[in-house]
Each structure stands twice: as C-alpha cells, then as structure tokens.
Specification:
binds flavin-adenine dinucleotide, signal, FAD-bd_PCMH, alpha+beta, cytokinin dehydrogenase, 4-stranded mixed sheet, Oxy_OxRdtase_FAD_BS
C-alpha cells in the first residue's frame, strides 16, 4: 500500500516540470519588464501605464478583487500580441500576460499582477473580424467580438450560431476559454463543442491554426483552457439557418423530483426543444431580479403564497424556435408537451418573441439594474456541475438546507441538466463522469460591505458537497490553491500540466486563474 508521505503522480509531474523549466537553457537578450518596454517602438501608442487604463484592467464584473497590472496593451493587430508574448518569452525574467475579453470574470481571472493585460476589445474593427461562409455554414470571428455582435452580423445573412450563453455581452474568446453554456447546451453542446477551427498565439509567441485535424492537441487544450495555453485570436464557429421566432413557456413545480424527471426526459428526446433551463424560487428576496419577464401580475399573489407554503419551488423554462414553415405546428407541439409534464396547473407563462429578443433577454434586466446603480456591484457567484445521481441530495442539503437557513441569497438560482455526450473529453473543461449532470448557478448580487457573507455561503456549499462526496465540479472555477486545481481536474490534471509545459512553458499566460504560480 502506498504511503501518504509520497508525492502523488501528479505532484511528481509538476515537480519534474518545474525542475525542467529551471534547467531549460535561456537564449535571451535583455530582461524587459512591462514598465521598461513602454518605450519600445513596436508598441508606440498601444502600451500604456496610465492609471485610468491600469485601474480599469484591475477589476472585473465580480468586483471582489483588485489586481493591478503594470501596463495595458491595446493591440490593433494579431502581430502586436505576438510581439508582446515573444518579448516576455525571450526575456530572462518573463512577465505575466493576460488576455482580457470583456472582463466579465468574477475573481480576477483576466488579471495580470505586475504584468500586461491585453485589452482584446481594442482589436474590434468593423471592417474586419467576421467573415461568414454561407456554403460552409460557418463564421470566422475575431475572438474580441461580443456574441451579440456576432449574432447581429450573422442574422444579416439569415444565419446564426447555435449554442449560446444566457447573456450575450461576453467575448467569443472569454466564453471559449470556459465552455459557454445555457439552455441550448442539452441540444447543441456547449459553445466549445461548436467550434471548427482556432488561431492561437501560444505562450512562446508562436501562432498556429488548429482544428480537430490540425494541431488537434492545442485545439482541444484551448477549448475550456482558461487562457492557459495561448491567446485565441480567431474562431471558426458553426452556423445554422436562423429561426424567426421563439415560443417560450415556463412551468412551476413544487416537487423537485417531478421537476428533474421532466427536465431529464425532455433533454433525452431527440429533435424536440431548442432550449431548456430551470430555476429555483425561494421564500425570501426578489424571485428573480434579472428576468423581469415573469408571470402576469394577476398570478403574482398566488405564486408568492405557493412559495410561502412550500418555501422552495422550481420553474422549468423551455423554448421552441419556429419560422414560417413550422408556425402552424409549433402551438400544437407545445400544447402536447405541456400535457405531458407534471407541473402545478393553473399558472400560465407563454411568450412569443423574435429569435433575437429571446437570445438577448438578459439585456433588459442589465439595463434596468444599471439604471438603478445595481450592476457594478460585487458578484460572489458560484457555478457548479452536479452529477445527476447527486442532484436530489443537493436540493435537500443546499437549496432546502444551507440556502434557506442562511436566508441571504438573492438573484437568479439556476438548475438544469445537460448531457455529457455533447462534450468532448479532449477539451480542457472539467465535467462530471456521469452521462447527465446539472449546471447549478448562484448568480448573486451583493453590496460592497456584505459580499463576504455570500462568499462564506459559497464555501459552505462547497464543503457540504465535499463532505458528502458528491463529485461536484466548479464551472467558471476559482481555487485558492494548486491542490484545489489538482482535485478540480482529477484524472485530467496531468494532461493539463503537460499541455501547459508544452504551450506556455514559462507560465506567462492568464496568471489570474491562479493555477500555476
Ligand atoms: P474575461 O473575463 O475577459 O476573461 C476570462 C478568461 O479568459 C481570462 O482568464 C482571460 O485571460 C481568458 N481570455 C479572454 N479572452 C481570451 C482569448 N481571446 N484567448 C484566450 N484566453 C482568453 N457563462 C456561461 O457559460 N453561460 C452563461 O450563461 C453566462 N452568463 C453570464 C452572465 C453574466 C452577466 C456574466 C458576467 C458572466 C456570464 N458567464 C456565463 C460567464 C462568462 O462566460 C465568463 O465569465 C467569460 O469568461 C466572460 O467572458 P469575457 O469576455 O468577459 O472574459
């Protein structure tokens, strides 16, 4: 039996890699640091240490960290990014570099302490950046683009990407570095399953085009790779003909097992719905402060009293797209679907909206919160993947246990299933082993003086799952120590480390993820 005093295989690998890195001969010129490359002609007018730029790059949507870089690069070309990474890689003391998409991380993941933050959005240029192939049904997109911009461009040609996030003001590079999930994932897979090709600048400053057939290891490493293996500058995204409208229904449940049984059955049916999500409504706080488009006011009192009675209720949300060819059958299909479900009868939520209004539904809530000064506040979010076999225990111990007891959680609380088969094991994102697992999101808004209470609650949830050996994995992960990351990736950790050594041996990229110190 192996003694616990021996380092594990993965620890040994890290140690070997660390020693090899130290022994790697360094073929370098000088040792530029961010503050002394400011005068480098290559970056004239693009690299700045102005406090406004540096301050802006030090915070993110989470508003719970402040990590100052030394400088910010506003690249106007891919070559600018190559030059910057090469400069760091070739120097004796490399400096950290992080791509920053739209800065919608929660914990400084796009930060580069004392290094250079690359403001990817400065690459956006109306004249280039998205080329649509109608025949190939794909779009070549600069990854600095927001998904809403990609949608608007492709819709001009009657086409659309198929897999989305709930919120579209995120960059293509940012979501592909994580996964990109929402109610479409059960049918189409995450966004990273809908990419055909990437251009990536590795941590050595080398640019490569990669796909399933070309440099496939780098391709899969970068998908869900948390920015660790390279800066993705172009993505070829699958497209389909765009539907015109969306039929959008919600159903309320008081019984969690009925709710999950219906969800699981619906995602197992081929060709059915285009979108399926679920949420939890609690006996405290506003039911959902983002999605104002809820039930008609006449239902409110009855819903509130149902929540009071049961303390926790659940809401299933489904969508079917349609166009002029399917408009006659869609109502009938949705009626049949309603009849087959075991929800609480008597509450009607049915909307018929344009395709773009459905996809961009969170924007209204965002603008509403912004107008009230409630958008740029701390967001101690927690997102988890929970194996199907554990979801009832999770409901009992977390939603009906910790969350009700602490009585502080507000904001959307999502819970919906997805199928493992829609993910590719070679991609970097860590997911549970079971065929079906649930995405659970605690999307909280807090105040600057109370966010730590939510963070404590997050820890409580994580500890509960760990003690109960539920094999829960964080999505959009944050781990304070490398030990946490080793557990996070489990059997994929060795591959993750090998790829890091191969593509970013000097550990230059995305240090804010806190994986490799
Ligand atoms: P950033 O925060 O700027 O960067 C994130 C990470 O990616 C950093 O490590 C950064 O260095 C790296 N990175 C950025 N660009 C590149 C690139 N081009 N190449 C390589 N690495 C890069 N996620 C979902 O999956 N589904 C959702 O429905 C969803 N909804 C959200 C709603 C809101 C309001 C918010 C704030 C976030 C949501 N997210 C969702 C999470 C979001 O997908 C991630 O936080 C994503 O990283 C944000 O994209 P960004 O462009 O702001 O990335």
């Amino acid at each position: 039996m192996a003694s616990n005093n021996f380092p594990s295989q993965s620890h040994l690998l890290v140690i070997i890699i660390f020693i090899t890195t130290l022994l790697t001969p360094i073929t370098t010129n000088t040792s530029p640091q961010p503050w002394n490359i400011l005068s480098n002609d290559n970056f004239a007018g693009k690299l700045t240490s102005a406090s406004s730029s540096v301050e802006a790059a030090s915070i993110d949507f989470g508003h719970v960290t402040k990590i100052l870089p030394s400088a910010v690069l506003n690249p106007s070309s891919v070559q600018d990014i190559i030059d910057l990474i090469k400069l760091s890689f070739d120097s004796q003391s490399s400096f950290p570099i992080a791509a920053r998409g739209h800065g919608h991380s929660f914990r400084g993941q796009a930060a580069a302490k004392d290094g250079v933050v690359v403001n990817m959005r400065s690459m956006v240029n109306e004249d280039r950046g998205i080329k649509v192939s109608r025949t190939g049904l794909y779009a070549d997109v600069d990854t600095a683009w927001l998904w809403i911009e990609v949608l608007n461009k492709t819709l001009e040609l009657g086409l659309t990407p198929v897999s989305w996030t709930d919120y579209l003001y995120l960059t293509v590079g940012g979501t592909l570095s994580n996964g990109g999930i929402s109610g479409q994932t059960s049918r189409y897979g995450p966004q990273i399953s809908n990419v055909l090709e990437l251009d990536i600048i590795t941590g050595k400053g080398e640019i490569a085009t990669c796909s399933n057939d070309m440099n496939s290891d780098l391709f899969y490493a970068a998908l869900g790779g948390l920015g660790q293996f390279g800066i993705i500058t172009r993505a070829r995204i699958k497209l389909e003909l765009a539907p015109k409208r969306a039929k959008w229904l919600r159903f309320l449940y008081t019984d969690f097992s009925e709710f999950t049984r219906d969800q699981e059955r619906l995602i197992s049916e081929a060709g059915g719905l285009h979108f399926l999500e679920g949420s939890v409504m609690l006996d405290h706080g506003p039911p959902d402060n983002w999605r104002s488009t809820y039930y008609p006011p006449s239902d409110h009192l009855r819903i509130v009293s149902m929540i009071k009675r049961h303390r926790v209720i659940y809401c299933l949300e489904v969508v079917k797209y349609y166009d002029e060819f399917s408009q006659h059958s869609v109502n009938e299909e949705m009626e049949e679907l309603s009849e087959s479900l075991n929800f609480v009868r008597g509450f009607v939520y049915e909307k018929d909206v344009t395709y773009i209004d459905f996809l961009n539904r969170v924007r209204t809530g965002e603008l509403n919160l912004k107008s009230k000064g409630q958008w740029d506040v701390p967001h101690p979010w927690l997102n988890l993947f929970v194996p199907k076999s554990q979801i009832s225990r999770f409901d009992y111990g977390v939603f009906k246990g910790i969350i009700l007891r602490n009585n502080i959680t507000t904001g959307p609380l999502l819970v919906y299933p997805m199928k493992r088969i829609m993910w590719n094991d070679q991609m970097s994102t860590a997911i549970p082993e079971e065929d079906v697992f649930y995405a659970v999101g605690f999307l909280r808004s807090a105040e600057f003086d109370n966010w730590e209470a939510y963070d404590k609650e997050n820890m409580e949830v994580l500890m509960f799952c760990e003690d109960a050996k539920m094999d829960v994995i964080q999505y959009l992960p944050y781990h304070a120590s490398q030990e946490g990351w080793v557990r996070h990736f489990g059997p994929r950790w060795n591959t993750f480390v090998e790829r890091k050594y191969k593509y970013d041996p000097k550990m230059i990229l995305s240090p804010g993820q806190n994986i490799f110190q």
